[in-house]
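seq:
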Amino acid sequence: MRVSAKVDYALRALLELAAAPPGPVKGERLATAQGIPPKFLESILAELRRAEIVAAQRGVEGGYRLARPADEISVADVIRALEGPIASVRGARPERVEYTGAARGLQSLWIELRASMRGVLEGTTLAELVARSRTGRHGHSSRVR
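struct:
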């Protein structure tokens, strides 16, 4: 699986929001905290706002906050909001890709791979990742929804 800079930056910014005290956080603070180019982050946050993952508040006291609790936002939600489906083969769903001869087994492999990735990504929330950063725990979630 290839994780784009956009998804990586989005997750890092969202984790900063999830770990922050209640209230709006300025985009420039998120960018500085995670070493993200500010202009790129602003465009990512705009996409996340349209996907209702973050909410924005204007004004002097404004900034960004999570649109719903961190334990209700999965890594899969973020990836889908920014890049679409979790796994595709040449832009198509694995079920729609057809192979012949010795390559027939590839379709079931792509379907299994997608199921495994979805299990990890859908079963891992922002709240869980923040907790991991605080405890120093690494590894993947064993919880699957």
